[in-house]
Amino acid sequence: MTADPSLIRSSFAAVQSHGPQLTEYFYDHLFTHHPELRPLFAAHLDEQRDRLWAALGALVANLENTDTLVGMLQNLGRRHAGYGALAEHYPAVGDSLIAALRHYAGDAWTPAVEESWTAVYGVISSTMAAAGDPAAR
């Protein structure tokens, strides 16, 4: 499975006007399907939603700038590990991210777009999980 950067960018452009709603949907989906993850997050998510949206924008903007992207993801991975995130949490987060993107992308969401986002999320999660693994540090 490979990611097509142009599909990532175009589908992100399709959801950009829905940023606050998309991140709210993401957290609702995550906590509905994985309530055991709720304690890892602050009681009020307003600031966290803004951070998530900013991180997604930075990811999309740096898709083809590998050094910047990897550095950003490693920093995020170390920070998330400090909040208690474990490698086994990343699939649930990915499922919720894909669900939120799919929900707001409308007709821009195709099987190829989903394949691209799934591939990108695989890189995101593996990079963040490796950086957050205390044995790897």
UniProtKB/TrEMBL annotation:
Residue ranges annotated for the Globin domain, each copy included: 1-133
UniProt key word Translocase: no
Molecular functions per Gene Ontology: FAD binding; heme binding; metal ion binding; nitric oxide dioxygenase NAD(P)H activity; oxygen binding; oxygen carrier activity
Regions crossing the membrane: none
GO aspect biological process, one term: nitric oxide catabolic process
Superkingdom of this protein's organism: Bacteria
The entry's keywords: Heme, Iron, Metal-binding, Oxygen transport, Transport
Alphabetized SUPFAM superfamilies for the sequence: Globin-like
InterPro entries: Globin, Globin-like_sf, Globin/Proto
PANTHER family: FLAVOHEMOPROTEIN
Similarity comment: Belongs to the globin family.
Protein name: Globin domain-containing protein
Organism ancestry: Bacteria, Bacillati, Actinomycetota, Actinomycetes, Kitasatosporales
